[in-house]
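Batch manifest line 445
LIGAND: fe (ii) ion
JOB: complex structure
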Amino acid sequence: MATLIDSGHRSIDIDHLAQSDKVHRSVYTSPEIFELEMERIWEKTWVFVGHESQVREPGQYYATRIGRQPVLLTRHTDGEIYVLFNRCAHKGAQLVGDCSGKVKELRCCYHGWRFNLDGSLLSIPLEGGYDGTDFGKDDPQANMQRAPRFDSYRGFVFASLAEDGPDLKTWLGGVASSIDNMVDRAPEGDLEITGGVFRYEHDCNWKFFIENLNDLMHPMVTHQSSSLTARAVAKKALGADTPAPAAIEILAPFTESYSFFDNMGLHAFDYGHGYSGGKTSIHANYSDVPEYNEAMESAYGKERVDEIFAVNRHNTVFYPSATIKGAIQTMRIVRPIAADKTIIESWTFRLKGAPDELLRRSILYCNLINSSANLVGPDDQEAYRRQQIGLESQGSDWVAMHRDAGRDEDLGDGHIYAKGSSDLAFRNQYRAWKAYMMNGGQSDD
Ligand SMILES: [Fe+2]
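JOB STATUS: finished
ARTIFACT:
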């Protein structure tokens, strides 16, 4: 196994940069390492592309990226979903310039080549000009190219630009159950993305966000300015006997105690995946919505509903590209742009068959927490930006991940558990990062 990689500029010693309990600052700052991450992680592993509800009808498309590659999620007239490179087979122009839409066909804006939504070539203007040449309309290269692999798990579409590797279900492993729980919370057993998207750019490396999602040592510090203030304002304005409004139910738990977050716990799996919470989380004490509980019980029966609601996870990370909160039906997507630039998208889901109040609560959550123009989220963004600046300095070369090292609990089948204050989530992500970076795309665990 080679540990030294010649990036074309200089050798990168992956073994040295990502050690079992510390990581070198250059993994957050180096453009060469960023390019290598795109090649060996993002353009090899399974990356979240979109949700099936974004292309419910034939002709619908959704444009996004896998690493540096522009792609389209489409629904063809055969009812199937496809993931295509957003590139005309002729002279390479992007077929689609906007984010989403519905069309009869994909027509290139440059020379008018027309394609079906499965990528197959429909027609070329003055096609006879190619008669007798080496160009063949039946040549697969005349079509829009498909991602080598794409698959859906209960409506969540992932794609891989590698021909080989574990299938999606195997790769998801222990975190597939977080998707299960989010979908099972819908009385009709299905989700729909709706309510718009917050899409914002961070001037920092993509890994700060994905690490922070299961960093349970930061909320009670970072979010004092938003959550503690919300608690204080509510106490003064409402008095002790008035029930807390939904906004306070959402904001207050961010400044729970260290022991509260410790008890939530951390769960880690292969390929860098993991979740925090489980038996309880910051979402566990939201007010009941009786109409929703009735819809769930009539769909599944009380015993099953109790099982579904007993799973109350905080963030689940599908490393490296996606995170969900099943208990509040939100999802955040990571799109790396450069070593110090990342786009984060924040989406909300409707639980099919649930009253509108559930969707309103999800949107309220995103407005309050995930929006870059409100509370909580900007606290984190400030911390990421300060990390980026600090790690670009020569103050020290290392970022520590030592907390509770060697004290993990092995639950079998690749499932590792630690209390919430452990650095387990970071060590687990870098175990996968290192394997991807050294093995050219395949995590070796
Ligand atoms: Fe935070």
